[in-house]
Amino acid sequence: MKTLEFHRDDAKDRVTVACADREVSVYSYCGYCRHCAGVRVGKRVIPTPQRQALFGVRQGGSLDENLLNAAVMFNTLVRDGSAIECEDDAGEGFRSMYRF
User: Fold this and answer.
1) What is the C-alpha to C-alpha distance for residues 57 and 45, in angstroms, rounded to an integer?
2) Are 15 and 78 in contact (CB under 8 A)?
3) Which of 31, 79, 78 is closest to 51 using CA atoms?
4) 88 contact partners, CB below 8 Å, separation of at least 6
5) What gap in Å lies between CA 54 and CA 89, rounded to an integer?
6) CB 4 within 8 A of CB 86
7) Where do the DSSP E strands lie in 7-79?
8) Which of 21, 33, 58, 93 has a 20 to 30 A CA-CA distance from 99?
9) In terms of DSSP bridges, do strands 7-9 and 14-19 run parallel, antiparallel, or are they unpaired?
10) Using CA atoms, how far apart are residues 14 and 1, in angstroms rounded to an integer?
11) 0.90 surpassed by pTM
């Protein structure tokens, strides 16, 4: 597992990380990537809410509302956090958690 530090651009309200061979938006990519293990907030790593919501759906939960709430929570974690914990040790880059 590796830690990807946030690069914040307050003028554009954008947060990026170095993923594989390019800079990607945390909001557009990391939150929906199967490699994203969580957000580092202080000394703690908080698991990705989208992954937890998707696991809850597989157990019979409500898909749309849970994923929307998870996305809002992820944005809050990114606002307060400093890095993404990434399980992509092979360096393959973004892989959607919604595709098999």
Assistant:
1) 23
2) yes
3) 31
4) 2, 19, 20, 33, 35, 95
5) 23
6) yes
7) 7-9, 14-19, 22-25, 36-41, 44-47
8) 21
9) antiparallel
10) 24
11) no
Beta strands at 2-5 and 83-86: parallel, antiparallel or unpaired: antiparallel
| Every domain of the chain and the residues it spans | 2-86
Radius of gyration of the chain (CA): 13
pLDDT along the chain (100 residues), means of 10: 92 90 90 91 92 71 78 93 92 82
Amino acid at 36: C
Residue 94, Cβ neighbours under 10 Å: how many? 17
Q: Which two tokens stand for residue 73?
A: 């929570």
CA 30 to chain centre: 4
